[in-house]
Amino acid sequence: LEKLNFRFYNGYRQDDPPLTIDGHITKHLVRFHNLLTLKIESIHIDVDDEDVRKLTGAMPKLASLLFSPTDDRPARATTQSLVHVARQCPCITRLSLRIDARNNTWRVPAGTEPNASLSNLELHDSPIIESIPVAFLLSAILSRPQINISSDRWELDPERARELRGYHKLWSRVQKLYPAMRAARSQELTR
Questions:
Q1: pLDDT tens digit string along 101-146?
Q2: Distance from the CA of 67 to the CA of which of 4, 16, 53, 79 falls in 20 to 30 A?
Q3: Angle at the Cα of 84 from the Cα atoms of 25 and 26, rounded to 5 degrees
């Protein structure tokens, strides 16, 4: 099996409880070692960094890992999940994952080479408060990312829309800072 796509519908009534996939699914998905594409969409995806580490560690051939949430609940995955994906999936070209980038306690293991394949990074409406540490992290783990932030939730209440616009501006700044940080890292490595 090379491609697995889950699309969920939350029933037909508005009062149906929201559907959630959590980290327990990883113990079932890790059996698919040859997957090239794993896509889970239209549901709340409640995974943390350890879940992402286990999943990507078991699927080194992944080219696309697409977790596309449809709700506004917070993410438990952090920037450390980006490190796991970049290190454990050398062939990955596309990652779609909502993360919480507000806590910059990530660790990049010594000797980590930047992932040269991952070029499309979709972060939905991932919260972020500082662009420089996140750009620094990305310059250590990725060679050429294009960061995409969805803006499909801006029709929410004005306060939430303002918050999401703030995240979008910070992620845009990460995208602008990245090339200079990547160039500096490359020069540092050649010394």
A1: 998 778 888 888 899 999 999 988 899 999 999 999 999 999 988 8
A2: 16
A3: 5
SS3 113: coil
Mapping DSSP to helix (H, G, I), strand (E, B) and coil, where does residue 157 land?
coil
C-alpha to C-alpha distance for 173 and 164, rounded to whole angstroms = 14
Cβ-based neighbours of 21, under 8 Å, separated by 6 or more: 6, 8, 40, 43, 44, 45, 46, 47
Q: Which two tokens stand for residue 100?
A: 């919480």
Report pLDDT digits (tens) over 6-36.
877 655 566 666 677 777 888 888 899 999 9
Other beta carbons within 10 Å of 129: 13
User: Angle at CA 83, nearest 5°, toward 40 and 139?
Assistant: 120
Residue whose C-alpha is closest to residue 66's, from 30, 102, 41: 41
Burial 38-65 (b: 16+ CB within 10 A, else e): bbbeebbbbbbbebbbbbbebbeebbbb
Q: Are 77 and 103 in contact (CB under 8 A)?
A: no
Interatomic CA distance for residues 183 and 191, integer angstroms = 13
